[in-house]
Amino acid sequence: MTARPTFIGLPDEAFVGGKWRTASGPTSEITDPANGQILQTVSQCTATDVDDAVAAGAAASADPGWCGLLPHQRARYLHRIADLIERDADRLATLQTFNTGKTFTETRALVGSAAATFRYFAAVVETHDEPMTTARGNYRTWIQHEPIGVIGAIAPWNSPIASDAQKLAPALAAGNAVILKPAEWTPLVSLALARLIEESGLPAGLVSVLPGRGSVVGDAIVRHPGVGKVSFTGGTSTGRGLAHIAADKLMPVSLELGGKSPTVVLDDADVEQAIAGVIYGIFSSSGQSCIAGSRLFVQESLYDEFVGRLIERTRSLRVGDGFDPSTRVGPLVHRRHRDSVAGYVDLAREEGGRILCGGAIPDDPALACGAYYLPTIIDGLGAQARACREEIFGPVLVVLPFTDDDDLVAKANDSVYGLAAGIWTRDYRRALALAGRIDAGTVWINTYKAFSISTPFGGIKESGLGTEKGREGIAAYSRVKGVYLGMDPEPNPWVPA
Ligand code: NAP
């Protein structure tokens, strides 16, 4: 166990319209999930702060100093932000490990991915061509992408900074202003990012970061008439509520929602590779990942051998403080969330599930004050059990057998979700056929949770609406305009001379 770094707090201020100020609502305590201690307090924003942020964002996005910039000039700001994130990467990752409990290895990777996201969208905006479209008369015609204006970006607590960057970078690249609302439990790294954005020299007002409650500040952002689009990442029921409000406003909305992703091990899989992939897919980030492979389907002929070895390897995962380099499974984000995960495991027991490993809070006294839960594997559940159907968002894997590919597809698709899937097999023909048949926005074959900013990402069914990332990620923050340029030298003959 290495010594924990010293926590260096941030001033209790929100970044509203380019100015730092104490938010207008009550304060909330930000806790360290590794030991339950209060790290600092943060004042929560309210509708008043949203009003000010929207007014500043609207003015800044319409200012010629921003809207008059050419794409390569906007790209320079994104590179500057990336430079600053890279300069302060260790500090940001440390802050995030304190706030979320994720291991430092994971938070360091998230910080790196945030910088890479700003660079990627800088490159995309610089190389984005506006296509000429095919004329059907004596004119030229083309498409023009224009900024929407003020974007509301609402983020969850599981991967702040990476999820912040996935919204901020394409929205700014497209020429918008952005109001970011981090999750109430995890605002610290988003506020630290705001200080770097300020340091980058980005014109004031283009980015606001408003910590606070979803039901207060999040709701005010979605309902505000000055907000032209909301990009939301979070749970399906929250996303559905937002979509109703957006429908009333006729406002576009992107929704990145929950998942209950199937991982499939076929009878010809490379077992060692599959075991490592399955374990990483569910237990990294302590299972708090929208794409966690939380339902494991193993072909019957391999079931006993595979599950036996899986249990053995899972028991060897070290559970502990995220700052300890040997830790693989850190605490969950909050004691309240840990209790929700524990409640699902209790329910699975009542529904007839066999707890093959874990299924408890660790008994190590050093972890007693933290939000820890042991990596848990459950089998023997029916497909209708709640642990098989609902997103637990913790280190809990349910295992189910299947007979053949048709049986597998029926079972894997028996879910309201369609976010991701994993397939482990040596037979690429079989893998590709299954990849086409499983309902998922992303399919991994012989890998899991590989994540590239250049590949579009989005869920189907109740896992989301729209896509983020990829070259098209920028289009999600643009309005499309068709422009016609008449080439006829004569007046329109329809009008009598
Ligand atoms: P959540 O409860 O839905 O909250 C997400 C965000 O929405 C938070 O900032 C939350 O604020 C805010 N919010 C809550 N109620 C709101 C309202 N009425 N109006 C506007 N905003 C509101 O989700 P979470 O528990 O933070 O995150 C876990 C969920 O996110 C999981 O379901 C996970 O699968 C999903 N997720 C999806 C993806 C993806 O890309 N598909 C990625 C990561 C996570 P508060 O913090 O104040 O509640």
UniProtKB/TrEMBL annotation:
Catalytic machinery residues: E256
Pfam families recorded: Aldedh
InterPro entries from the UniProt entry: Ald_DH/histidinol_DH, Ald_DH_C, Ald_DH_CS_CYS, Ald_DH_CS_GLU, Ald_DH_N, Aldehyde_DH_dom
Record-annotated Aldehyde dehydrogenase domain positions: 20-482
Keyword annotations from UniProtKB, A to Z: Oxidoreductase
Keyword Oxidoreductase: yes
PANTHER family found in the cross-reference section: ALDEHYDE DEHYDROGENASE-RELATED
Family per record: Belongs to the aldehyde dehydrogenase family.
Protein name: Aldehyde dehydrogenase
Lineage: Bacteria, Bacillati, Actinomycetota, Actinomycetes, Mycobacteriales
